[in-house]
Task: structure prediction
Amino acid sequence: MDVDEEKLSEFVYKAIGDIGATLTAGLVVVGERLGLYRALAAGGPMTPAELAKKTGTAERYVREWCAAQAAAGYIAYDAASGRYHLPPEQAVALTDDASPHCVIGGFIGMTSALRVVPTLIERFRSGKGIGWDEHEPGLFEGTERFFRPGYGAFLVSSWIPALEGVEEKLQRGARVADVGCGHGASTIVMAKAFPKSTFAGFDYHGPSIEVARRRAQDAGLTDRVTFERAAAKEFPGIGYDLVTFFDCLHDMGDPVGAARHVLGTLAPEGTWLLVEPFANDRVEDNLNPLGRLFYSASTFICTPASLAQEVGLALGAQAGEKRLREVLTEAGFTRIRRATETPVNLVLEVRA
Result:
């Protein structure tokens, strides 16, 4: 085998960068948990000693963390003063949980997902799955914090208005089921925007439902928001004007069965809002930074989750619209439309 030394060197340099990126991800979580980013955002340029004093941490650790973060481009260093600062753009991405540009949840979730590597190696050999409930709690927190800013930015302002007649129904008063609701972020966003409607959130993961109930209580929404543990093929109720699935259908073992159940719960002229990770239909069209993220997350989380359930269809996080349409059509739906999209999401309107 002939080896191009220049290409080899380029790849090794890339691999070294990826190893550094792996370690950087862990240090981002350290910075978030210890409040280092927030202290820099609020306090301006600081020496490591000043930052350590501000956050109640040890200067020697902070000094090394600062240098590593500056080398990664996450914070900036002024050699003349020996101080580090957080540029405003990084401050938004790393500290503003309300911004759709916030990425901190991704770091929390994905560093937690890495902890299943020994199990994942064994499951590669056996073909068995890894249930969502088998992961570290950091994955559940990180997933919510990664997706919640997008729901806050787009769900009410863009996604729902893109559906035929749905916004008007919600304004008048409608029944909504939010399936795979996790910690209830999407449910609560909708409930706050449409005070005349009632919302039922369902998820098979008991601890997430407990968190969602606390969130609803804290928001003062328990009079018209409920959360219940239920699988996507079994959630109760009929006559829903709107059923929503946010970034979860591809995780299900039997997405056709789940879709068929949705069809049976919708009111006449009811709508299913299906939001999935953005993907093109062909692998070669997804070989980009977003595809790298979603294929990798799918290998750790989504595909194993599906394989751990009945059927185990394992759509994966990059199924694409064509494959999703096949699932929906098999379940009995006849009207499927891409209502809108974002750089990270496909938003489908699905009707009987």
Observations:
- The beta strands are 76-78, 83-85, 175-179, 198-203, 225-229, 240-246, 266-277, 335-342, 345-351.
- The chain is about 50% helix and 15% strand.
- Residues 5-33 form the longest helix (29 residues).
